[in-house]
Design a protein that fits this description.
214 residues, seven-stranded mixed β-sheet, 20% strand
Length: 214
């Protein structure tokens, strides 16, 4: 069936909701509450929430976040059941035609990147970020809501990659982050070393801003 671009553009203009995942065991961080960890004076999840400022509704799936109040707070079943279970819980709260799916540990994600993903998905089913090694960032994506609901139907576990595999390849858009972006928006904090790098980046940015305003 040919794509009706006028209809897609009208749907795109209705905006998007966002599902922000704050669960997970954070094993490589010793089981710490990762989304609450401080980077540049702001909890990780709050930094991601700021990048989703254009969302009509921000739906958090997982523990209550520090630093902001979402529009909806819910939990996956069972708690800690993984990202697919979390998405299945979050999608029930989505009312917009498009939905951003975002991990809670992306300290350098920006509203501009989320807007690019939203714009790219206007005539497709999924738009996701890729890193500079060409790897899909499955939890930094915007989906057509009906498609995500469809591929989640009947699932309570499994992998996010399996969800993506259920979408025809020609309906998926992969966007590369601008390489000049430093630190990169796809950078996540899985280990103590990652967290230290993120904090060092923000400290250098703060120093550069202070020098520029002196």
């Amino acid at each position: 069936m040919p794509v009706d671009r006028a209809m897609d553009r009208a749907m795109y203009n209705r905006g998007y909701d966002a599902i922000l995942l704050t669960g997970g065991s954070a094993r490589r961080l010793g089981g710490k509450d990762k989304p609450a960890l401080d980077v540049g004076g702001v909890p990780l999840a709050a930094r991601v929430a700021k990048a989703a400022a254009g969302a009509h509704r921000l739906i958090v799936v997982g523990p209550a976040p520090d630093g902001f109040v979402p529009d909806v707070l819910t939990r996956e079943e069972p708690a800690g059941g993984g990202p697919v279970a979390a998405l299945a819980a979050g999608i029930t709260q989505v009312s917009a035609d498009f939905v951003a799916v975002l991990a809670g540990d992306l300290p350098f994600l920006t509203a501009g990147v989320v807007d690019r993903l939203h714009a790219a998905v206007a005539a497709l089913d999924v738009a996701l970020l890729v890193d500079d090694d060409g790897r899909d960032q499955l939890l930094c994506a915007v989906w057509r809501t009906g498609v995500l609901r469809s591929v989640l139907a009947g699932r309570s576990g499994g992998s996010v990659r399996a969800l993506l595999a259920a979408v025809p390849p020609e309906r998926v858009e992969r966007l590369a982050a601008t390489r000049s972006a430093d630190p990169p928006p796809w950078f996540d904090c899985d280990t103590e070393e990652d967290l230290a790098s993120a904090r060092n980046w923000t400290a250098r940015e703060k120093t550069a801003r202070e020098k520029g305003s002196a």
